[in-house]
Design goal:
Elements (H helix, E strand, L loop, with lengths): L10 H11 L18 H27 L24 H30 L5 H26 L4 H25 L11 H30 L15 H28 L5 H23 L4 H24 L12
Helix pairs in contact: 2-3, 2-5, 2-9, 3-4, 4-5, 5-6, 5-9, 6-7, 6-9, 7-8, 8-9
């Protein structure tokens, strides 16, 4: 009697065969190019887009204020009591304010896309996820503060808070870009030079913030408070400008000290230190020219935009001294 060969496959082999021919399940993001399995470079570029969008909002928000369009849409969240969009009676001020509100939706879309990319990327850490979540939540919160500025008829201190929050988002987005860079080098080993550089970098970061905030105080005391009838903060523009200039002088001293220090110690952060001095020189020229030419709108917008770039540089310098990127492996 000969052994007969099996005429049917075993249950295990049947299951394996079925699995081999069954199409892979697709998630809701798999059909969107790049978001199915986000790469490090894909996520990094979305983080850059988020940073650029936040800087763009700073510039367009400045345009609203400087053209006197802060009350172009006199209410919030509607543009008027009975419409979400401006009508002809509001003129070009209404169009500018409404356009800035619409750009906020672009920023929201970019923030959501960045959030999805970070959360779906396999190499993201908990800190990355927390950071991108806070940045995403900061945008609608910024919208609420913007609404309060309209409802308070452009109270200068609330307007300053609105600008400061925008700059907080710029600084936070800079941190996200730095953390997600695909060619990141290992965190430097702490040395005495790095510790001293870290202290100087933090001082420069804090003084940069002081100069930025005092700049908003100057604006709140001068002719560009957001609307012809908007209240001013009651401070003398000359005195506010001098206080702002004093903070800038301190910032210049710190930036030169850091540039010399990083050059002498041959530290990688020297390139960022050089760029910061270059931006600071540009900012100084723009500031002096705008002050002596009665604050033309275009120069003030450039001045505000360069302020955002300076904050990016100050944030990056702190990061390059290893305060954020050390211990990334422990965060996973």
């Amino acid at each position: 009697m000969t052994a007969s060969s099996p005429t049917s496959s075993s249950p295990t082999s049947s299951t394996a065969s079925a699995a081999a021919v069954e199409p892979a399940r697709t998630g809701r993001f798999d059909r969107i190019p790049g978001f199915g399995r986000p790469t490090a470079r894909f996520t990094y570029w979305w983080a850059i887009a988020l940073l650029v969008a936040n800087v763009g909002i700073v510039a367009t928000g400045g345009a609203v204020r400087l053209t006197g369009s802060g009350l172009g849409c006199p209410t919030w969240p509607r543009c008027t009591d009975d419409s979400f969009v401006p009508h002809e009676a509001l003129g070009w001020h209404g169009a500018i304010e409404f356009g800035n509100r619409m750009l906020t939706w672009v920023l929201i879309i970019v923030a959501i896309a960045t959030w999805i990319a970070v959360f779906r990327r396999a190499g993201s850490t908990r800190r990355d996820r927390w950071l991108v979540t806070l940045l995403a939540l900061g945008i609608p919160f910024q919208g609420v503060i913007g609404g309060i500025t309209v409802l308070t008829k452009l109270n200068p201190w609330v307007v300053s808070l609105h600008f400061v929050l925008s700059m907080v988002l710029v600084s936070g987005a800079t941190v996200l870009v730095y953390r997600l860079r695909p060619d990141a080098a290992p965190a430097p080993t702490p040395t005495r030079a790095l510790r001293l550089g870290r202290v100087l970098a933090w001082l420069q970061y804090l003084v940069t913030w002081a100069a930025i905030y005092l700049g908003t105080v100057v604006t709140g005391s001068g002719p560009h408070a957001g609307d012809a009838e908007a209240p001013r903060n009651g401070l003398a523009p000359d005195n506010a400008t001098q206080l702002h200039a004093d903070a800038v002088f301190v910032l210049i001293g710190l930036s030169v000290a850091i540039a010399v220090f990083t050059h002498v110690m041959d530290l990688p952060a020297r390139r960022t230190a050089y760029r910061f001095i270059g931006l600071l020189a540009l900012q100084g020229v723009v500031g002096v020219v705008q002050y002596n030419t009665d604050l033309p709108i275009l120069l003030v917008i450039i001045h505000m935009t360069v302020s955002a770039l300076l904050l990016i540089g100050a944030t990056k310098l702190v990061l390059e001294f290893g305060t954020i990127t050390s211990n990334r492996a422990k965060e996973r």
